[in-house]
Amino acid sequence: MNIFEERESNVRTYCRNFPDVFHKAVGSTVYSESGVEFIDFLAGAGALNYGHNNQYIKQKVISYLESDAIAHGLDLHTMAKRDFLEKFSEAVLIPKKLDYKIQFCGSTGTNAVEAALKLARKVKQRTGIFSFMGGYHGMTLGSLAISSNNGIRLGAGVTSSHVTFMPFPYGYMENFDTIEYMETVLTDVNSGVEKPAAIIFETVQAEGGVVVAPIEWMQRLRNLCDRHDILLICDDIQVGCGRTGPFFSFERANIVPDIVAISKSISGYGFPMSLLLIKPEFDIWEPGEHTGTFRGNQLAFVGASAAIEYRESINLEYEVKLKESFLNTFLNEEIACLSEKIVIRGIGMIWGIDLSDRGASFAKAIAQRCYELGLIVERVGRDDTVIKILPPLNIEMPVLRKGCSIIKQAFFDCIN
């Protein structure tokens, strides 16, 4: 028995599928303690959009550390926070004509979600929330209540309340007008469902199986919320920060959510950081009404500012579009053709190979074979039957091609 099995909790997950002891990582490549090289198509579950140890961001962080600047600052005014607020406003919000107040939450995405739910209920003076089947929003009680997977919900040990799950346009609901259904629920006096304070959604249900919401659907959802005086919350924690191309994943629908939850890659370097973007008229918090000891992670502010500069310097949005085109072509022409039961879904730099018709054991075998061949790739979706491709956005094209060729080899090995 090793020290991990002896002392680490049974709750550990990723290490069960990727059991090597990892030591070093650069760009899109990680190395085990023994020197084995792996291409990373997991990217810290979306927290490493700019790759491992991004050189530009790293140097900014090192310089900051060497200056003996503030490392932890609660919500005090600091130079690092001011620099981030100015950079984020000038480079992201103002050019996109977005007017948001910025709330720094605790260190993880689920805290941003909790804050969003809490604020929505305070603003609208209603308790209910509409969430969607297939949605995932975090592991704390409020976030679990709006996440649909029964397995993880049971882990809370208490009954989740004040949440109504609505159908997402996917699977057997794909040809069902889910927006019209919500309209009926909200207007039928006998529906038994009260008007919620907010509707929370993901533009791409990442953990739900890489399910991409249609543009028209998102536009109708925004309109529904406007007509019924309901706040629209976008959980952009995993697919924001350029994952779908633009900085925010909702931009392609030309909509503006009332509240946006951001985390994972916002810090640029994997530092814990989460924030809410709030339309100014809804920022009605009392001082200290929602706090967090680590909401003042100065290294995260430095990394976040550097990440924005890095994005601009390499025209990352354009790079994502080029790689999106490659992944779309490769997956549909090289993988989907292997079996009529394989379904490909994705956008930008998040793609899913849906093997639900082949079963969970087959999907697990594919992911395991990929790992044996030197590729780290995760399974998501119902029963973990979707292979999720989530490389760093700045992955070099030769490395991206090599990782995809490993996936193809894994399919050949497991099918034959």
UniProtKB/TrEMBL annotation:
Superkingdom as given in the UniProt entry: Bacteria
Gene Ontology MF terms: diaminobutyrate-2-oxoglutarate transaminase activity
Claim: Transferase is one of the keywords in the record: yes
Keywords: Aminotransferase, Pyridoxal phosphate, Transferase
The EC number(s) this enzyme carries: 2.6.1.76
Record keyword Lipid metabolism present: no
Pathway participation: Amine and polyamine biosynthesis; ectoine biosynthesis; L-ectoine from L-aspartate 4-semialdehyde: step 1/3
Pfam families: Aminotran_3
Requisite cofactors: pyridoxal 5'-phosphate
InterPro entries, per database record: Aminotrans_3, Aminotrans_3_PPA_site, Dat, Ectoine_EctB, PyrdxlP-dep_Trfase, PyrdxlP-dep_Trfase_major, PyrdxlP-dep_Trfase_small
Similarity-based family: Belongs to the class-III pyridoxal-phosphate-dependent aminotransferase family.
PANTHER family: DIAMINOBUTYRATE--2-OXOGLUTARATE AMINOTRANSFERASE (PTHR43552), DIAMINOBUTYRATE--2-OXOGLUTARATE TRANSAMINASE (PTHR43552:SF2)
Name under which the protein is recorded: Diaminobutyrate--2-oxoglutarate transaminase
Species name: Funiculus sociatus GB2-A5
The gene coding this protein: ectB
